[in-house]
Amino acid sequence: MKKEEIIIAIESLLTEDEFLVQLSLDEKNNIAVFIDSEQAVPISECIRITKEFEASFDRDIEDYALQVSSAGLDLPFVIPQQYKKYEGEEIQVVQKNGTKLIGLLKEFDGEMVTLEIETKELVEGKKRKQLVKKEYKLNINADIKLAKPEINFKRNKKK
Fold first, then answer.
1. In this structure, what CATH number is given to the domain that contains residue 49?
2. Are residues 62 and 18 part of one domain?
3. Which of 44, 63, 93, 144 sits at a 20 to 30 Å CA gap from 87?
4. Alpha carbon 36 to chain centroid distance?
């Protein structure tokens, strides 16, 4: 099986708001597909895509194993659409210099991320540390080594 052929087939099965995050194919024709959407991807959607794909490719001709999954919250972002999806939510970023940042993804323009970080710092004229917001502008290719959703069960992340 050819990877390009599989990508075309999978993309033709995706709904308007779904997108292909990653597809891997090994020498034994084990196919792993990760999809995402502006909304959550239910397991029923992964099953639908699997069944429709299997109807298009005869297993008697091509011996393969197919696994269709949603891109999980613990997996790093692979494509720019994932940054767009998480606008308004907290993400975790590891910069190429090793610095780890956790903050609100305020804006993504296709290349640059605006990340708002809240820290407590001493402010001149104040006795106690104050909550200070700082913005970081990061290029997803030049500055970011890894980015993924920040899982925080204590507060609502949508702003």
1. 3.30.300
2. yes
3. 44
4. 7
Q: What is the pLDDT of residues 58-95, one digit of tens each?
A: 878 888 999 999 998 888 999 999 999 999 999 999 99
Contact (Cβ atoms closer than 8 angstroms) between residue 141 and residue 86: no
Whole domain around residue 36: which residue ranges?
A: 3-70
Kindly give, in sequence order, each residue whose CB lies less than 8 Å from that of residue 98, ignoring residues fewer than 6 positions away.
Answer: 145
Is 39 within a domain? yes
Task: Identify the burial level of 28 via C-beta atoms within 10 angstroms of its C-beta, where 0-12 means exposed, 13-18 middle and 19 or more buried.
Answer: exposed
Question: Which position has the token pair 């305020």?
Answer: 106
Residue 13 has, within 13 A of its CA and on its CB side, a CA count of: 23
Question: Do 42 and 23 have their domain in common?
Answer: yes
Half-sphere exposure of 12 (CA within 13 A, CB side): 9
> Under a CB-based contact definition with an 8 Å cutoff, are residues 38 and 86 in contact?
no
Please name which of 139, 138, 83, 135 lies closest in space to residue 108, comparing C-alpha atoms: 83
Instruction: Answer whether 0.70 is exceeded by the pTM.
Output: yes
- Give the largest CA-CA distance in the chain: 76
